[in-house]
Write a structure and sequence with these properties.
The protein folds into 2 domains: 195 residues, Cytochrome c-like domain (Cytochrome Bc1 Complex, Chain D, domain 2), CATH 1.10.760.10; 154 residues, Cytochrome c-like domain (Cytochrome Bc1 Complex, Chain D, domain 2, Orthogonal Bundle), CATH 1.10.760. It is elongated and about 90 Å long. It has 412 residues and is mainly alpha-helical.
Length: 412
């Protein structure tokens, strides 16, 4: 790699980069945008001559400079920098816009009137420019590091162990297990106690002092603990409870393990707590449209048997991923986009020194599906809002590097 000031306009583009890109699956829009005139057609911009680059500059002056800057450095938030972007990537994206594989109103109108030659030449031109400077850190005191949500949740949950047991496994009859609950259900229950929708003399004042962030952290902490049944006795008939539970499985899952985040798992839950909850639904003290009718049809003996059956079942961990740190996210992104976002694959975009607003916008587009890529959709779907913001800021502050592509002679 070459830094700023080195190889200013002298760049050699690769003819054979198979070893570096054989396993790479570029954006699906880019894959479908190949013109098919040759095996290396998607690398056409890589072969550009100095004359081609000069022609590309003339195209950029009339078609691109207004938004992206003639030097390829955008002065407008939400518009990407193109300077020193990988030329094959730019060419493929331009083709994708023209073929409507990617849709963006401003770009559609521009590329529609450009020839094949103009597209690869303007891509080569922007690829030949000096990289943009990395974004400066915000003035003033540096932002405090983002707290680890799992550690923060563990700290917040410490106050719960006195009643709900270490790690959310209850040892007190009448106190519910917190382990094995989906975080969405846990957070909703905390909010219901906080708002007064759910009544409990102990939980209402306790929940009142818990912030939304702390509730989310606690939910994550308990969801990631090894699940185990409550260490409390049950008085009912488990076999009779199993027969009575046949109508409960549609919502609470087979053996009491729910597959719906909005519906709690009952497996391993404290029997006395379950019995009290069902009676509260039956009497109307606890509100739920889905639980009111089923609970009303149960007599006290059946309620006790149901509670005993579910208390004896093995709880399962909900489908929750352990959150990644910024360093862990960067390590994953760098696998494709190069160290610190400086890709060495001409088909893969450089992230280093890219517009922070643009990176944020693109990641969210992959999350919502408005921008298509199987790999990026899978990756971005695991990112929280904080992860997206941190990654965008991180790569915007990395130093962009030019890359030398070595031309190899054709095979004989």
């Amino acid at each position: 790699m070459a830094g700023r000031g080195q190889l200013s306009f002298v760049k050699m583009w690769v003819v054979a980069v198979a070893a570096a890109i054989a396993g790479h699956a570029p954006d699906s829009a880019a894959q479908s945008a190949k013109t098919g005139t040759g095996a290396d057609d998607d690398l056409r911009a890589v072969y550009a001559t100095s004359a081609d680059i000069a022609d590309g500059k003339r195209v950029a002056e009339t078609a691109c400079a207004r938004c992206h800057g003639l030097n390829g450095v955008s002065a407008t938030k939400g518009i990407p920098h193109l300077a020193a972007q990988r030329p094959a990537f730019l060419h493929l994206q331009l083709l994708a816009y023209r073929q409507s594989a990617r849709v963006q109103n401003a770009m559609d109108g521009v590329v529609r009137f450009l020839s094949d030659d103009a597209l690869y030449k303007v891509a080569a031109y922007f690829g030949s420019l000096e990289p943009p400077r990395p974004a400066a850190a915000s003035p003033g005191k540096p932002a405090p590091p983002k707290p680890n949500p799992l550690q923060a949740g563990k700290a917040a949950a410490a106050a719960c162990s006195g009643c709900h047991g270490e790690g959310g496994i209850s040892t007190t009859p009448g106190m519910p297990n917190l382990v094995g609950l989906d975080p969405k259900y846990f957070a909703a229950a905390m909010q219901a106690y906080k708002s007064g929708e759910r009544k409990n003399d102990l939980m209402q004042p306790a929940a009142a002092g818990v912030s939304e962030a702390d509730a989310a952290g606690m939910a994550l902490y308990f969801a990631l603990q090894k699940p185990a049944p409550a260490k409390t006795p049950s008085a009912g008939d488990k076999a009779a409870g199993k027969k009575a539970a046949s109508s409960c499985g549609a919502c609470h899952g087979d053996q009491g393990v729910s597959g719906n985040p909005a519906t709690p798992s009952l497996a391993g839950q404290d029997a006395e707590y379950q019995e009290a909850a069902l009676k509260a639904y039956k009497q109307g003290a606890r509100k739920s449209d889905s639980m009111k009718a089923p609970a009303a049809a149960l007599d006290d003996k059946t309620v006790r048997n149901l509670a005993a059956f579910y208390a004896a079942q093995q709880p399962q961990a909900p489908n929750v991923r352990r959150p990644l740190t910024l360093a862990q996210w960067v390590e994953r992104c760098d696998r494709c986009h190069g160290v610190n976002g400086n890709s060495t694959d001409p088909r893969m975009p450089r992230l280093a020194a890219q517009s922070e607003e643009w990176l944020d916008k693109v990641l969210r587009a992959y999350q919502t599906g408005t921008r298509k890529s199987t790999a990026m959709a899978a990756m971005s779907s695991l990112m929280s809002e904080a992860d997206v913001k941190e990654l965008a800021a991180y790569y915007a502050r990395q130093t962009a590097r030019s890359v030398i592509y070595v031309v190899l002679p054709p095979r004989k």
